[in-house]
Amino acid sequence: xxxxxxxxxxxxxxxxxxxxxxxxxxxxxxxxxxxxxxxxxxxxxxxxxxxxxxxxxxxxxxxxxxxxxxxxxxxxxxxxxxxxxxxxxxxxxxxxxxxxxxxxxxxxxxxxxxxxxxxxxxxxxxxxxxxxxxxxxxxxxxxxxxxxxxxxxxxxxxxxxxxxxxxxxxxxxxxxxxxxxxxxxxxxxxxxxxxxxxxxxxxxxxxxxxxxxxxxxxxxxxxxxxxxxxxxxxxxxxxxxxxxxxxxxxxxxxxxxxxxxxxxxxxxxxxxxxxxxxxxxxxxxxxxxxxxxxxxxxxxxxxxxxxxxxxxxxxxxxxxxxxxxxxxxxxxxxxxxxxxxxxxxxxxxxxxxxxxxxxxxxxxxxxxxxxxxxxxxxxxxxxxxxxxxxxxxxxxx
Length: 397
Description:
- This protein is of the alpha/beta class and 397 residues long.
- The chain has helices at residues 3-16, 24-78, 86-95, 98-106, 118-132, 196-212, 214-222, 250-260, 301-316, 344-347, 377-395; strands at residues 139-149, 152-162, 169-176, 227-234, 277-283, 293-294, 330-331, 353-356.
- It is an enzyme of class 2 (transferase).
- Its EC number is 2.3.2.5.
- It comes from Phoxinus phoxinus (Eurasian minnow).
């Protein structure tokens, strides 16, 4: 029976008993009141249904958020890389464009990049422009802040790029974009410190990784994967005078603290952006020939093994140039001690780290000879191809 039929029957019964012999005006008023009451009841029912559905959805969202929150650590520890055929490995390696890496990404970075200067602003614009031109649709942000230094207050700016800000987990590729304050050559005042390996080349490598994997990263974003990629270009890694806990790592110290107090995923009460980081891969001092890169941390040894495996596979397939043996760069049989770098503020907060830095340092480290001419182009391209395989495997592109 319909709702209309029930309502008509009730009114008919009332007219036959409760209203018999009453004044017609009074009866009419009663009928109006009954109709108004029924209309109110009918109007309230849809509202009640909407409220029930709303709070059910809120409860479901809250439960989902708590589920993601509880699973962040478990998912990070149980994460397994994708597996690729020989043909797929060749495809990823071929997508790395050495000419684009050198001419488009690196050359504009080979200037003085001291924090708070016009040079710093120029290279930040270059980084943002390159990432903004890609089809993957990066979310770009400049994290600016002022800090006291031995030279007075300085404004620093980290450049951040996230593929999918809403994804619960992140793989971070990072480097620093600033250059050290360095005395000019008294015999040649135009000769300035450009820090080719420290860290213009690592910045260019990360830009090339984003460009070479653009199509696959776009597809990953469209899949709304639980795991995404973030790129971080730190400012203020270098000390203004002597390296101390307070005169160094300005950008990474600030960002680690900021991420530690930023809730993630959205609506989470107990987890932060810092806890969303699966792995921080930091690149520094890369560009010279024959780098020896060792594993610094036991808890990320399995990911260092993936770099070793990628180098071996690419070597066996003849996809690396000027590469005499299958394991030339990444070695587990050496350890020369820890290195202070931008990973430290994250490491101290429990973030897993891969620190890709040659030890011993290049002979031109912190000298005016750290220039493009001292960089070994085949090595830079080889390392970028190895990292392309690593990123593709980690994200299952």
